[in-house]
Structure formats: C-alpha cells, structure tokens
Write a structure and sequence with these properties.
The protein has about 270 residues and is of the alpha/beta class. About 35% of the residues lie in helices and about 20% in strands. The strands form 2 sheets. A 7-stranded mixed β-sheet has the order 4-5-3-2-1-11-12. Strands 6-7-8-10-9 form a 5-stranded mixed β-sheet, covered by helices on one side. The two termini are about 25 Å apart. Bound molecules: manganese (II) ion. Manganese (II) ion binds next to loops.
C-alpha cells in the first residue's frame, strides 16, 4: 500500500458488487483516490442487480462510488466497462459510449510491452451461470444472507470487545471451490484466449485474485473482488502487472477471544 497517490498506466477492477451488503465501498473510494491511471477497466459485477431492492442497502456511499468512477472518466481517464452477470442489465448498452465510458462485451488491452490481453468478466465461461442460472441465483442470495448475518454477529462481538469473524468468506470459499471443480472455469477461459491468439486474459467473476504467468508466457489475471479480498490489478508504465491488496488494516489480535471449537471449524474449511 502507498501513502501518497501513485499513477499507473492501467487499472483493472471487478466484482465491486455495489448495492450488496458485503461491498467495501470505503476501500474502493480509498483505492480510487490513491491510485490514478490513464485507463480504467471495470471488469464486471460492478453493480449487483441480483440482491434485491429495499433493506436500505443502497446507501449514499454506494452512490459515491458511482460518482467517483464518473469523476475519474471526466478527469480524462479512459474508462472501459465490460458488464458481468450481476450487472447484466448494463449489457443492453454494449457498444455504446457515455462520455469517456465505453461499454462493451469485452476489450483488448495492449500493454506497454506489447502484450495483447483479452479483458472480459468471464461468467460466460462458467457453466453454473450459463447452464444452471437458478443455482447461481441461489448462491448470490446465500452469500448476501451470510454477509448480513456476519454483520449482525460482529456487531454483537464488537459490543463484547471481541475480534470480528468472517464466516461468510469461509463458507463462500467452500461454495466457490465446488463451482471451480465443477466447471474448471479458469482453464476454459485460458483455452479460449489462447485459441484466439491473445497473450493473456484479464477476468473477474470467481473472486480469486491472482496473476499467473504460464511456461509459454501466457498471463492469466483475475482481478479478485471488493467484497472479501479488496484487490485490483495495475499495469505499470513498463507493462509490468501487479496485484494490489487494498484490504482494511488488520485489527490487533486479542488473546482468548476465539472459542476453540470455532478455530477448529475455520481451519477445517480451508
Ligand atoms: Mn460474476
């Protein structure tokens, strides 16, 4: 993390899930303030249209993130938005331009060192979404429910001076792990990008942030998310890609604040 604003050639973010309970709006805002760029890629699931209306989840800080993104575009940064499955209502605008914001199904980003990267959210390579859409819906509601429960439980823990727990993330890891095995999402999308002559692919969707460089130089980039990981991928002036972690600073550990049985449960899930 940096203390003063830094400037990069390109920034890739996905899965902010604005409008969902788990969205870390404050971290997104902090990131946008501290890391400026020439090109900003919004790699899908920026807005979460699946979590339903009401419950006062769309608060001012969610609107502020939208305003910050639009201000970035107005400030001269080129913004490219490839909608995902949670914000698929934006796909109606594919091929369109709103000021400095270009919306399309996918983009080709050429790095400073000449690599051609396919930028796409990636849900179309995930068979749980394309074939079993109702199942994916249930997953989304389950995640939302867990996030709400997490917040309620932690409010209670905080009142008792205990460290917050993150069981929503733990459960989700299990669910996503199951989905990954079932569909082998990553190898599908890598095979597609290779077949079409790209030097790499930048996607989101599965909330597993990583930069993997294969033996032949092909790059697989997953931008992660702003619900659990708070990650973004940036391209520096020389074309180097870096995964940034913008998680909130860790709370100091307290002794004897976790029940032994829960410790066993957590380690068993990982
Ligand atoms: Mn998605």
């Amino acid at each position: 993390m940096t203390d003063s604003p830094s400037h990069v050639r390109a920034t890739f973010v996905s899965d902010i899930h604005l409008g969902s309970h788990g969205c870390k709006t404050e971290r997104v805002q902090d990131f946008l303030r501290q890391v400026t760029c020439d090109q900003l890629y919004l790699v899908g699931d920026i807005i979460d249209g699946w979590v339903g209306k009401g419950h006062k989840k769309w608060t001012q800080d969610h609107t502020d993130v939208i305003l910050a993104l639009l201000a970035t575009a107005k400030g001269g940064c080129e913004v490219y938005y490839t909608p995902g499955n949670h914000d698929d209502f934006v796909r109606r605008l594919n091929g369109g331009e709103l000021g400095n914001v270009t919306i399309d199904h996918s983009f080709i980003h050429t790095t400073a060192d000449g690599k051609s990267l396919l930028v796409v959210h990636g849900d179309l390579f995930d068979t749980t979404v394309t074939k079993y859409r109702p199942l994916a819906f249930i997953g989304a509601y389950l995640n939302e429910y867990m996030a709400v429960m997490n917040s309620v439980v932690n409010k209670n823990r905080k009142a008792k001076g205990k460290r917050p727990l993150d069981f929503a993330a733990t459960v989700k890891k299990g669910v996503k792990g199951f989905i990954a095995k079932k569909t082998d999402y990553e190898s599908e999308i890598i095979a597609f990008a290779r077949e079409h002559g790209f030097d790499g692919v930048v996607c989101g969707h599965v909330h597993r942030p990583r930069i993997d460089v294969m033996a032949d130089g092909f790059v697989y980039v997953n931008t992660g998310d702003w619900v659990e990981h708070c990650t973004a991928v940036v391209e520096h002036a020389d074309g180097r890609l870096e995964l940034l972690n913008w998680s909130p600073p860790a709370a100091p550990e307290r002794e004897h604040d976790t029940q032994p049985i829960f410790k066993r449960f957590r380690s068993g899930m990982r």
